[in-house]
TrEMBL record:
This is Dihydrofolate reductase family protein. It comes from the Bacteria. SUPFAM superfamilies: Dihydrofolate reductase-like. Residues 4-180 form the Bacterial bifunctional deaminase-reductase C-terminal domain.
């Protein structure tokens, strides 16, 4: 069965973006981008990968899931941001913009969609964001791969949107620190 991995950058105070959706405070320099990129090949915007010569084939994922706000970060320049992957955007209010070839926009229940995807054959499924979608899919997430950045935002979009409090323990089989201060923390459902 395929696994759903929530792979995202996050601050040490638990935010995936600032109050206005900004993410420019994350650490992009140092030794970690190449090392993390090698482990998670293909988990980068197709145009960016092409522009800087990053490989996109052979990675752990063949499908990427996004909420509308995560998807819209790249608009209007990148209406099909991960064209090398199967792209699914969850939205009830928006329609496909021009040029969004290969992107499936759906208002279906994310849990039902993920369960159907997991039953298919293929590689892993990448939950790219955002926090509201992650909260909806919380019980379906098999792995967390968090690029914990050494910054505080003090507010913004949390890794998981607020919801019912239900403590849950996860195992951390791999923690990899980098000189830049970023820590790749990979967790498995406990």
């Amino acid at each position: 069965m395929r696994e759903l991995t929530y792979y995202a950058a996050v601050t040490i105070d638990g935010f995936i973006a600032g109050p206005d959706g900004q993410f420019d405070g994350f650490v992009f320099e140092g030794s970690h981008p190449a090392a993390v990129g090698e482990k998670y090949v293909g988990a980068v915007n197709t145009a960016m990968a092409d522009a800087i010569g990053l490989p996109i084939d052979g990675g752990p994922f063949d499908t990427v899931l996004m909420g509308w706000n995560t998807y819209a970060v790249g608009l209007p320049d990148h209406p099909s941001p991960y064209s090398h992957l199967r792209q699914i955007v969850f939205t009830r209010e928006h329609t496909a913009p021009e040029g969004a070839d290969g992107v499936d926009f759906t208002d279906r229940d994310p849990v039902e969609v993920v369960r159907a995807l997991k039953a298919e054959s293929g590689k892993g499924i990448w939950l790219c964001g955002g926090g509201a979608l992650a909260a909806t899919l919380r019980d379906e997430i098999d792995r967390l791969a968090l690029k914990r950045n050494p910054v505080l935002f003090g507010g913004g979009i949390p890794l998981f949107a607020e919801g019912g409090y239900a403590p849950e323990r996860w195992r951390a089989p791999v923690i990899t620190p980098y000189e830049s201060g970023l820590v790749l923390a990979e967790y498995e459902r406990g």
